[in-house]
């Protein structure tokens, strides 16, 4: 589980910003979005073909 150390003179907003960046870098947000909605393999292929043609 990712975490950050809050520095002694750091505001909550900046600590939250650092945490969000770390989560994004680790790829956790992408994985959450992918797991939110199951997509059948055939749907994935169809979606990939559509995006590749444009």
Q: How would you summarize what this structure contains?
A:
The chain has three helices and no strands. It is mainly alpha-helical and 54 residues long. It has one domain.
Describe this structure in words.
The mean pLDDT is 87. This protein has helices at 12-26, 28-36, 41-53. It is built from three helices and no strands. It is mainly alpha-helical and 54 residues long. It has one domain (12-53).
What labels would you give this structure?
elongated; 54 residues; 3 helices; mainly alpha
Q: What is the 3D shape?
A: elongated
User: What proportion of the residues form beta strands (DSSP E)?
Assistant: under 5%
Query: By helix and strand content, what is the structural category?
Result: mainly alpha
Which sequence of SSEs, written as H and E, runs from N to C? HHH
DSSP strand count: 0
Q: How much is the radius of gyration in Å? A: 17 Å
Largest sheet: none
Number of domains: 1
Mean pLDDT: 87
> Total helix count?
3
pLDDT below 50 for ≥5 consecutive residues: which ranges?
none
Assembly state (oligomeric): single chain
Share in helix: 55-70%
Give the distance, in angstroms, between the N- and C-terminal Cα atoms.
38 Å
List the SSEs and their pairings:
Blueprint: H1 12-26, H2 28-36, H3 41-53
């Amino acid at each position: 589980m990712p975490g950050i150390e809050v520095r002694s003179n750091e505001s909550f907003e900046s600590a939250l910003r650092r945490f969000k960046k770390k989560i994004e870098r680790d790829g956790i947000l992408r994985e959450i979005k992918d797991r939110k909605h199951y997509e059948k393999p055939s749907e994935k292929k169809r979606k990939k073909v559509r995006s590749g043609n444009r």
